[in-house]
Predict the 3D structure of the following.
Amino acid sequence: MDLLAWPIVEAISRNWALVTIVSTFVLLSVVPFFIILKYVRISLNVMRTTRPPLSRNPLDFHPLEGEGVAFPALDGLPLNGTVITANPLVERRGFLIFAHEFCSDRQSCARYCRPLVESGYDVLTFDFRGHGDSPEMPGYTPRQWVTDRDLDDMRGAVAFARLWLEERGLPAKIGIFGISRGACAAILVAQEEPDIKALVADGAFSTDTLIEYYMKRWAYIFAKVRVVYENHPPIFWRFLRWSMMHFARREFRCRFPSVRKAIARMTPRPILFIHGERDSYLPVEQSRRLYALAGQPKLLWVAPDARHNQAVIRHPKFYARLTTAFFDRHLAGLPAALCGARLASPTTRDDEAAARHEEAIVAVG
């Protein structure tokens, strides 16, 4: 044996207990660190490249006519929108803000809000930054994951709605109808805005738990040892979630707020969650988890046979009656019996299937 190596061997043999402790510490800290780092790199790649499916072609509906408006986001970026006034032949019932999904624009509100406008609701629909007619922000790329920039846009819309109502002597009672990323922004802003009285969230999710879901789903692709990726303890996934959000802030130069944390802190207010039963992009569990965290009153409808953001397409008449009845009850303050009557007597076979579904709402209140 090399004369230089002998003192090292002798020192190890005399201090084997200390060497064992140090080796164990390295094994339990350094190795997991590199595993976490590998997961984080893949998580960031998912956030860079994954694009959600659009529900349908953006031109598959007739736009609703209204007055073009402009207002600033909270950080000053100018945004463009449209105020669609309620059907003048019926009694006015309230004011709604429509928040579109990623890669869509304000015109898509026609697919969701036409029955509400006809029932007496004014609607503000607007383009998030980098969408439709709203300008891009230098150095910022919109993504399907809700960010603090989206919240600034939503805050600007709420401020405009409040001013619009005040100028007309109307009470500052606002409902929000959000789709996917727009639903996430609605929930996050509602947590800080008491004037938001009721929310419909179609396809909502929390970025942190959704990325965690993707990691668990795809871990087998890049994990070397199957027994390892199948037996990560819960604390591993929590730490991964924290690490992922930390690195994402640095990578994309924006924050990705947690919807699950916001909804747990929110002063309870009425929320209707809608999710497609066959959504392969956002699992139904995402809405179930948010529903479990929300305070009462809360409602959940899992739309049979519907994919991502397609409940309104798969069950249009039931969808219209459900959302209208919800806002009638929890924003307009109409009697529960009258609102529930809107959901009686399904008119099509698809509506009957929707109404029979185990989590369908057959009465609102």
